[in-house]
Write a structure and sequence with these properties.
This protein is an alpha+beta fold and about 575 residues long. It has five domains: about 55 residues; about 90 residues, Phosphorylase Kinase, domain 1, CATH 3.30.200.20; about 170 residues, Transferase(Phosphotransferase) domain 1 (Transferase(Phosphotransferase), domain 1, Orthogonal Bundle), CATH 1.10.510.10; about 100 residues, Tumour Suppressor Smad4 (Sandwich); about 90 residues, no CATH class. It contains 19 helices and 22 strands. The strands form five sheets. Strands 1-2-3-4-6-5 form a six-stranded antiparallel sheet. The protein has a six-stranded antiparallel sheet with strand order 13-12-22-21-18-19, with no helix packed on it. Strands 15-14-16-17-20 form a five-stranded mixed sheet. It is globular and about 90 Å long.
């Protein structure tokens, strides 16, 4: 069983000057990966602290196993509690018994006076209450929970941060944490696991919309009620993405190794997709009975996480539904751009699995006389398409070359590359050599027709928002533009991009029409406006084709996608 005092010991070691913050964090991660029972004993046995230092660390701690069947030392010989908190009143509740003790404090069961319902009261440990940082962390969790009330997030009824005994009154869930449930039954039936993961994702999607990232989703932080209800708890490491909350320090590792996203292992900014990864890791554990990235130390775990090295769930669970496995693969993508963009979208696909509907993952749809045939683009970074048996996507048709094309993940989306095929590769009716695909593109490899679906990928790759001024550049005269396009001159790309937003043209036309009206009258101005508008609409329809000819990027008239592409390639287009 994990040491409930590990976090407290870590910060004591920092306060005592035994370790720096970074080193203490690294030791805690290593201890958690090793799965020991006592952080202090592990530090001593590993030669990282001396016996006197250990004595300093554990001084004043209430040690012991909360699940022990030994005599309850809080009870006197008459059966009356020796614990002064039991029987006392806090925030309109009477405490009835102690539920457990952790590194930051203790948890009690209580009865509310106004409703009579059972609640949980979480107390901050007395020594921590004297520390402004710890008190701030403790109360911040309560304030986070107050902001994000949701049926799948543990509810909060009251907070007292001013008294000598800071505490939070929380919802009582009649059930157990998922890690305890896993110890009892080893794994869950696939569809029950999918339902649990869906409810976790719904809770996180709600939190993300409020700007809150959990950062420590794992089985121990999810309660499963006896009635099947799922509740996410412990937002102690949660981060507000809108502000610098001061709780994340450079080099600090926050999370639990077996469930942490790749970006959490380094000094990287995290977003909602780190929670999507952690839900995927939790779902993998629920359905297989094993963590996706096993290891005895942080180094071995992180190597597997960063390489995406994991055993397919279907290799461990023969009756694994294919679509559920695809959802897990997408949630655990190393490159976060290829995960579900939001927890809400992950929940939607999990709901489709539960309802027997088709999930929305990146895929090719082969259009055949017998009906559409799905070709999922998961897992992996690259997919070889051709007639050879060794190809990732095998097409049994003589018009398809043995190794016809390659489809791989790029910075701006899936890139289709023709490999010198005999009968060519076509996108939107144009023969291509190398092109970025967009959602619903029509492909033809030899004589075989496909449709590409990105599974909502575009929204993940174009999350940056730009002011309209980013598109305002000096306009080239149209004759110059036409000549540069015919020459496939890279210098015209920025002028073509300027033609995409309708607002740019409307503003320019209004200025011209106002000037014509001043000189020749309103009637003439309106006639000119009508003729010029018709001509412009025809020209604007050609802009995506011009851009494709020069850049080989097939992004149609999607302005956000083009802006994202421009950020990546502006250095090569003067």
């Amino acid at each position: 069983m994990a040491d409930p005092h590990a976090d407290e010991l870590r910060y004591r070691a920092i306060d005592l000057g035994i370790f720096t913050n970074e080193v203490a964090g690294q030791h805690l991660v290593a201890f958690q990966a090793a799965g020991g029972d006592s952080f202090a004993d592990w530090l001593l046995e590993s030669g990282l602290i001396t016996l006197p230092q250990m004595s300093q660390l554990v001084a004043g701690l209430v040690m012991g196993d909360d699940d022990s069947d030994e005599l309850d030392v809080t009870m006197g010989p008459t059966g009356q509690s020796l614990d002064p908190i039991v029987g006392a009143e806090f925030s309109g509740c009477t405490v009835t018994r102690k539920l457990g003790q952790g590194g930051m404090g203790s948890v009690y069961i209580a009865d509310r006076h106004d409703t009579g319902e059972t609640v949980v009261i979480k107390f901050l440990a007395p020594e921590q209450a004297q520390n402004p940082t710890w008190r701030g962390r403790f109360l911040r969790e309560a304030h986070v929970l107050q902001r994000i009330a949701h049926p799948n997030i543990v509810g909060i009824f009251g907070v007292d941060g001013e008294s000598a005994q800071p505490h939070i009154v929380m919802e009582f869930v009649d059930g157990q944490p998922l890690d305890v449930a896993l110890e009892q039954q080893e794994l869950f039936p696939p569809l029950q696991a999918a339902q649990i993961a869906r409810d976790i994702s719904l809770a996180l999607g709600h939190a993300h919309e409020a700007g809150i990232i959990h950062r420590d989703i794992k089985p121990a932080n999810v309660l499963l009620g006896h009635n099947g209800v799922v509740k996410v708890l412990d937002f102690g490491l949660a981060k507000n993405v809108a502000v610098d909350d001061g709780l994340s320090l450079p080099g600090q590792v926050l999370g639990t190794p077996h469930y942490m996203a790749p970006e959490q292992w380094g000094d990287h900014m995290v977003d909602a997709r780190c929670d999507v990864f952690s839900v995927g890791a939790t779902l993998y554990h629920l359905v297989t009975g094993s963590v996706p990235f096993p290891g005895n130390n942080p180094q071995s775990i992180s190597r597997k996480v960063l390489s995406g090295e994991l055993v397919a769930p279907s290799d461990l669970v023969p009756d694994m539904p294919e679509d559920l496995q695809l959802v897990i693969f997408r949630m655990l993508a190393v490159n976060r751009s290829y995960r579900y963009p939001t927890a809400k979208q992950a929940a939607e696909d999990l709901d489709r699995v539960l309802n027997g509907e088709e999930i929305d993952v990146p895929r090719l749809i082969q259009l055949t006389a017998q009906g559409p045939q799905r070709r999922p683009l998961l897992p992996g970074e690259s997919f070889l398409i051709g007639r050879d048996d060794g190809c990732d996507i095998v097409i049994r048709d003589r018009s398809v070359s043995r190794q016809h094309a390659r489809l791989e993940r790029g910075k701006t989306g899936f890139v289709l590359q023709d490999l010198g095929s005999t009968y060519g590769s076509y996108v939107g009716g144009m023969r291509i050599r190398n092109v970025v695909l967009k959602n619903k593109d029509q492909l033809k490899l030899g004589k075989i027709q496909f449709e590409f679906r990105d599974g909502g990928l575009a929204s993940a790759l174009t999350t940056r928002r730009h002011a309209p001024s980013r598109m305002q550049v000096r306009t080239l005269p149209q004759p110059f533009v036409q000549v540069l396009v015919e020459e496939a001159d890279k210098r015209v790309v920025l002028s073509l991009l300027e033609e995409l937003p309708e607002t740019t043209w409307e503003r320019r036309l209004k200025q011209a029409v106002d000037h014509v009206g001043t000189l020749y009258g309103q009637e003439t101005a309106e006639e000119v406006s009508s003729k010029v508008s018709k001509k412009h609409r025809r020209q604007r329809l050609r802009v995506p084709q011009y851009l494709f000819t020069i850049t080989h990027e097939n992004l149609s008239d999607d302005i956000e996608a083009w802006l994202h592409w421009w950020d990546q390639h502006r250095g090569t287009f003067p």
